[in-house]
Amino acid sequence: MSAWAAVIGSPIAHSLSPVIHRAAWGQLGIDGWDYRRVEVGEESLPSFVAGLDDSFRGLSVTMPCKQAIMPLLDAIDPLASAVGAVNTVVPSAGMLAGFNTDVTGIASSIRRACTEGGVPMPSSALVLGARATASSALAALGELGITTSCVAARRFGGPGSVIAAASRLGVNVEQVMWADTASVQRAARAADVIISTLPAGVADPFAQAVAPREGQVLLDVVYSPRRTALRSAFERAGGVIAEGTDMLVYQGAAQVQLMTGHSPDPSVMRHALEEELERRARQGPGGRRP
Q1: Which residues are known to be catalytic?
Q2: Average pLDDT value over all residues in the chain
Q3: Taking Cα atoms as reference points, which of 47, 149, 104 lies closest to residue 258?
């Protein structure tokens, strides 16, 4: 029985995880493993997890399963537990263990952008959105030394709330309602880094009103299409872009380490990802999920 890993979620057909994981496996000399896309929603998730066999080596978990999978696991890493979202599952001594590598993906992409852009590491932040990726963003900002961040969202309550995650992480959140345009713009002007965790198109009205400053850092997690309205506004103003593709690569590299025990070269994964994005751009719209 050949070893396999997979990315699960719904919809999953356009996921780029197979591209970066297979590139990493090739660079590491791992042969005979199969990396799959598996369409799994919240309703089918329990039966899917129950059916995992000894040939399974790991899961990359995307929406809507990042929170739904947590009660189905035997152990959860403290960081993933604090964030309230799992994006990686690996077998360990007959148990299933959950981790969150989105945090390192976000932090690493911002570090790389600041280093290459020649700007200081940020000391203040605005996060757009209030769900799983926003919670990971707060944890990443905490790793960068930012313990108080502003979060702008339509609502803050409900399961998977960024406010509950902030409490578990021990960081402070200043809440701004998305409808309060003036307050959102003030928060944007005050932030050294803006992280948009919003789906494609949702941040477009904000992009039309925002006035980025030179050297201000933007991480838009949407990477397909890469040239979002928000990114274009920052580029025109001389802002520094932290690539959403870098977030994907760095979180994927951490997943490969967890699944294989070996550290891949992120540049190999990045090259494979760029080639695939170029291929999809020639063929038409692609997917956005990690």
Answers
A1: 66
A2: 93
A3: 104
